[in-house]
Amino acid sequence: MTDSYPITARSRVKRVAKRAEYDRTAVHAILDAAMLCHVAYVIDGQPFCTPTLHWRRGDRLYWHGSSASRMLRHLATGVPVCLTVTHLDGLVLARSAFNHSANYRSAMCFGTAHLVTDPEEKRQALLDVTDRLFPGRNATLRPITAQEIKATAVIAMEIEEASAKIRAANAGDDDEDGHLPVWAGVIPVETVLRAEQPSPVLPATIPRPADLAPYAPGTRLDDALRATQILFASAP
Amino acid sequence: MTDSYPITARSRVKRVAKRAEYDRTAVHAILDAAMLCHVAYVIDGQPFCTPTLHWRRGDRLYWHGSSASRMLRHLATGVPVCLTVTHLDGLVLARSAFNHSANYRSAMCFGTAHLVTDPEEKRQALLDVTDRLFPGRNATLRPITAQEIKATAVIAMEIEEASAKIRAANAGDDDEDGHLPVWAGVIPVETVLRAEQPSPVLPATIPRPADLAPYAPGTRLDDALRATQILFASAP
């Protein structure tokens, strides 16, 4: 495995190519810092853009859903998809309208999605989706039932090509606009966790569990997800 | 104009249909509370999922980019797209792995995207993208140049069909799991604004401008965007 995804016609970043990266570390860092992705796929020429939760083992991305969902029934046959994760990091105000921008980190992943049909891989994937977010949590839960496994479809996609694109800078004004008496700068945007809201039917004797330790109030979601991905990937 | 988008084969929500809404108010509220969307489109059977900034006038969505970008060159001819906005609002932990979920608000919009070629509509759209985020800001900036207008492509899409999907609830445990000694609840997720970072080359005499008033540190981004959209939509 090389350190870089192949750069092809479909994955090459065309617009502001200087912001592009193709190495696995950069792509995985963006994927792992998010739980929400958007998956594009095509049915009879019509594109769909569906939000879903993803998780990763090596170069393989997973997502899941009801066995009855349109996306999953369609993907079952093995179809091309594009899975994209984007973090919005800031609003960028410049001295000209043209140079206004946004700070962001995004990763576009291309591959062929297929339904996970092997019973053991599917069971493991359904354990993974919980343990990836809350390492160790499955050990505290009752086992998944056969009916629950049946009701869920799991999709896997080997990342064949991918690109990352990052803007992390202050305003990029044209030199000739530098003298204008206009404010320019960045308004940072952060996605953070708040204090937990226990289920209203929960007995008061049940405390906040250890598997929530990475999700302390005020923590950035991307930091929490990076930390839990490391725990997940290093679990035996 | 009715209050609801038509419910068709492509827009009907299949999975957890009870979470679906089709009325304009619900769809617009989700769109207007975000600046980031993902656009799915197809080139030679290959789906692409591209993050971009969107803005809205009535039932018309706009986005823009470099005239050289792949997406925009492709969309210029009028092609089907699906534009999706998703807000992640919380992690939902249940007593069973199966009932873990997420709180979210998403809107999927279907339509035919086309390049805005009318010079006056294009110029207005490029004013709009700044004034939609920072109402009144254009009045403080130098005019957009003809070269800047040429270098930018603007895409418009009339929303033909759309659906909104919302989960905003605590854990939905099965009755038979209610006795299990396991914590269940929601970890809320919020996307918020932080203190501005002025451009390092900005003279210290230039204060934070009035157009940033809705973006006070600690404000939720969705609240700021809702407020600015109202100002934008009601401007003369």
TrEMBL record, chains A, B:
Signal peptide (UniProt feature, chain positions): none
Gene3D superfamilies: Electron Transport, Fmn-binding Protein, Chain A
A Pfam family this chain is assigned to: Pyridox_ox_2
InterPro entries registered for this protein in UniProt: Pyridox_Oxase-rel, Split_barrel_FMN-bd
Taxonomy, superkingdom: Bacteria
Ranges that cross the membrane: none
Cross-referenced PANTHER family: 5-NITROIMIDAZOLE ANTIBIOTICS RESISTANCE PROTEIN, NIMA-FAMILY-RELATED PROTEIN-RELATED, FLAVIN-NUCLEOTIDE-BINDING PROTEIN
Protein name in the entry: Nitroimidazol reductase NimA, pyridoxamine 5'-phosphate oxidase superfamily
